[in-house]
UniProtKB/TrEMBL annotation:
It holds the Pfam family SseB. Residues 1-20 are annotated as: Disordered. Residues 26-143 form the SseB protein N-terminal domain. It comes from Jiangella alba. This is SseB protein N-terminal domain-containing protein.
Length: 195
């Protein structure tokens, strides 16, 4: 593992965060672990949630006796067996302390965690390294979360879709709604394919 010193920890909208895991993320990770859900379900839950980025003290300089003179706070990167680096993130304080009881949690939206991973040159966001369920957000998925990707429709356990998207999909009943348009397009495509 390597620490990334001098990283500015952004202010957070989670001032009253009690450090508990988001139930939607926990449910998606548990389903993934049991083989009842896919990585897309976990990504959908993560996109709407927050993660805890661990911040640890790192010695910047030592005196002649070897004692620390100056320390800085740093985020933590880990290197996998394949050589890829990942920024550590956790779903709750309990899982963070299971990894390192001295690390301080910094709550951030998942998007900010993904942005930080990319800014630090990481290829992954490694979630809950010490369990209960470890999950890695890799490459394209990491870039998608960093760009603000969210599921367009309702996703099991994630909550309601964006109201604007739901309205665009709704049919007004008079045949002019977006739902009617898509049904007509599908019928035309089906007729064209069938002949």
């Amino acid at each position: 593992m390597t620490a990334v010193p001098r990283r500015r920890v952004p202010s957070t909208p989670f001032g009253d965060d009690d450090g508990a895991a988001d139930p939607r993320i926990v449910a998606a990770l548990a389903a993934y672990e049991r083989g009842e859900g896919g990585s897309a379900d976990v990504l959908a839950a993560l996109a709407a949630g927050r993660l805890l980025i661990p911040v640890v003290a790192v010695a910047e300089s030592v005196d002649a006796t070897g004692a620390e003179k100056e320390t800085a706070m740093a985020t933590v990167l880990t290197t996998g067996r394949d050589g890829r680096r990942g920024l550590l993130a956790f779903t709750c304080v309990e899982s963070l302390h299971r990894w390192n009881p001295e690390a301080r949690p910094s709550p951030v939206p998942t998007r900010s965690a993904a942005e930080a991973a990319l800014a630090d040159g990481a290829e992954a966001l490694v979630i809950d390294l010490a369990g209960p369920v470890m999950f890695a957000v890799d490459a394209a998925d990491l870039r998608s979360l960093a760009s603000g990707w969210r599921p367009l429709g309702p996703w099991p356990g994630v909550g309601q879709a964006d109201p604007a998207v739901a309205a665009a999909r709704a049919d007004t009943g008079d045949g002019s709604g977006a739902g009617s348009v898509w049904r007509r397009v599908r019928r035309r495509v089906r007729r064209a394919l069938i002949g």
